[in-house]
Amino acid sequence: MKILVLGAGALGGYYGARLLEAGAAVTFLVRPKRADQLQASGLVVQSPLGNVARTVHTITRDQVTPDYDLVLLTCKTYDLDQAIAAMAPAVAEHTGILPLLNGMATYDILDQHFGTGRVLGGVAYIAATLAPSGHILHLSPADTLLIGQRAEATTALAASLYEVVSHTPGTRLLSADITQDLWEKWVMIAAGAAMTCVMRGPIGAILHTQDGRALITQAMDECAAVARLSGHALRPAAVHTMHGTLLDTASPWAASMMRDIDHQAPRLEADHIVGDLIRRAQRFGVDVPLMRVAYAHLQVYEARQHQAQGPVRPRQEAAGTARPLAVDHASASA
Known about the structure:
This protein is of the alpha/beta class. 45% of the residues lie in helices and 16% in strands. It contains twelve helices and ten strands. It has helices at residues 10-21, 32-41, 80-87, 105-114, 155-165, 178-199, 203-207, 212-229, 236-246, 256-262, 270-283, 289-309; strands spanning 2-6, 25-29, 43-46, 52-54, 57-59, 70-73, 96-99, 121-130, 136-148, 171-174. The strands form two sheets. It has a five-stranded parallel β-sheet with strand order 5-2-1-6-7, with helices on both faces. Strand 1 (2-6), helix 1 and strand 2 form a beta-alpha-beta unit. The longest helix is centred in the middle third of the chain and has 22 residues, at 178-199. It is globular, with a radius of gyration of 19 Å. It starts with a strand and ends in a 25-residue tail after the last helix.
């Protein structure tokens, strides 16, 4: 299987390396600076599940051709337009697209550009970061990847991809209902991001406040109601997992958006993770007051960053930048 990985950051680099180990023909579409770094030192992954260090094939945007079975997409949601422009020349009639992004807005946008029959569904539960050295650090043994078709046209491709990834370390599942899986993860991420960003602290610290448990519970209920009205009521196992993460008084879990705020990041994934859920609630006439408060908080933060720094350039993968990109991908049991 010929796979183009868009970028070689924490998530793209990690899963690209694992796919290489499994025998896939993997090419990384990267900026020239990252291409030079990978040429000089190779792709290095440090992981409890096994380290990887190997040379890789890279191309830059001007070298893209329609020659791939699959494009793996792992950018931040606010960079999606840029990613679509970069990957579009690689998408041939037979090419599938696998995004590993949170929320459902990503799928609406990709479907509009490429058609539902090209876009698979993917859910990753993993914690990884890109170190200043350019090495990828897998931060815990947890690594669960779910993939599945969202349309009949991608059934065979999903099965073929699963056959490859099933030979990589970690938990690998071919989902019978990947859209449900996507919704269930989104509900947990949206509720957790709303609370940890507003409170500027991890779940455990919030739960030790007077009203922390009630507020987190309300946030989960608001998000779950939107999923239910959208035809994706949370299954008991998903509720159990979410409660295990967001109602654990010892939990160090925090959304990556909270970490980004701590690091004074100029942009956040607020619109796709929180804003889109609010818009869907409005279509059903459902009020989600805690989510609206959280979204206003995040919008104020971004506006102040914009004023302080001037017009924000579209973020691109920056080699040598350490960022906990995958806190939101961390296993719920971690």
